[in-house]
Amino acid sequence: AAELDVELPATPFELVVKEDSVARSRPFRPLLKAKHKHELRPAAWRRLGCRTPFTIPESKAEVTAAWLTTMLRWRGYLTSDEEVLEVKSKAIGEGEGEFSDLALVNLVKIRGDAPQLPRSLIAKFSPPDMAGLQLKIVFGSEAHFYNDLSVEGAGMVKPEAVYIGYEKRRCGTDKYCFIISNANPPSAPAILFKREDGCSSLPHLMLAMRALGRFHAQWWNCKQRGTLKWALHPHHAGGPLPRVPKGVTRLSWALVIKAGLTALPHCYKKDDAVVFGSEFTEFISLVSGKIDGLAKAVARELFRPPLTLVHGDAHLENIFFASHFEGGCHFIDFGLTMIGQPLQDVSFLIGTGIPVEVRRQCELQLVRHYHASLLEFGVTGYSFEQCWRDFQFQLFRSMVSLLTITPSFAKQRKERKGMFAPSPTEGDIKLYNMYLQLNKRLATALTDHKWHERLDELSWAACGCC
């Protein structure tokens, strides 16, 4: 408890506040507390996967002016007298680690006023080679989040869902296509911080903390039913997956942790290949020999109540900042949105998105601001002491996200492919450099907060139960 009363360090750090005046952002509207799920839906809602008078595009080449005209008339953005005459598209996102194909679609010329139609759009297509299970988890969750929840209903400022397409196929891979408003159009530019660089602007980080607090408060202690029937639950799966007993999911998370921790040293062993993950050497030495027998207890603690709807991938490049946004920031990319522990989002953003020295000096202030935002938007019975402890423990949840893909990285390194190829692509180099910074920040945060000592607490608790 004494640790919570420590004042912020007096040593100054650089605050990089860009040209936007974040202090004058649009205020949040009150949260929408609906009694029925239809009250949370966007206007002109249509069931996901319903029949349409057009086919679902599979690439930007198929998002033509003619296709857009048909779709936008069906969606109500264009009247029968209005028409998209010219479109300019280009691919975006290479080397950023996305699961999807992305394109920027600008509507250059339109006949008519079409006052409600965004002129700059993002098109997102599900890749045909993605495994069916992964496709259901990533694209299925995001499709429902966009399609079934309005901005007011979700409790989070997000892009306008112009069109969410889904086709369930009897043979082959299901197909998804999202057409959403661009969060950073030329007419209203926003500020975006790169993951590799990190964010040292306390005012912007405070905006993100408040937005996450509001989002989590909207779904505090939510259930996997009704509006959130589609959401994956950490205790019994469901949503895009079959519902299973709690012990099965806990075992699954434990196996992911063990497999990842086993594979990670193979990513930085001394040979002629590129080294990956060596930043975690000290941390692995501290938890080695302890975590194997406690992996299930760690999984249980990671998903201990309270639970809420979490973004699941709240990194810097999924947050846009501008004074014209409600609350000053705007989130994108909801492919990993699920029911989870609320501090998962907070620890991920703080633990991986802020340069080490800045994080050390402002993390307590940021978590206090997040907790105050929870209280502001209606959460009760959740003390700051518990919030701080959850933040510290959830730093390992960010590690679990890495451990999930570490066996794949170890295989790539063995085969000298991807980031580990003798001649990596520009996208692979960008991805490697990004992970280099993220790993350094997360590994330092885990050791700074002495996360390994929490394993001793779990061990003591397990013995106490016996």
UniProtKB/TrEMBL annotation:
<dbReference type="InterPro" id="IPR004119">
    <property type="entry name" value="EcKL"/>
</dbReference>
<dbReference type="Pfam" id="PF02958">
    <property type="entry name" value="EcKL"/>
</dbReference>
<dbReference type="InterPro" id="IPR011009">
    <property type="entry name" value="Kinase-like_dom_sf"/>
</dbReference>
<dbReference type="InterPro" id="IPR015897">
    <property type="entry name" value="CHK_kinase-like"/>
</dbReference>
<feature type="domain" description="CHK kinase-like">
    <location>
        <begin position="178"/>
        <end position="380"/>
    </location>
</feature>
<protein>
    <recommendedName>
        <fullName>CHK kinase-like domain-containing protein</fullName>
    </recommendedName>
</protein>
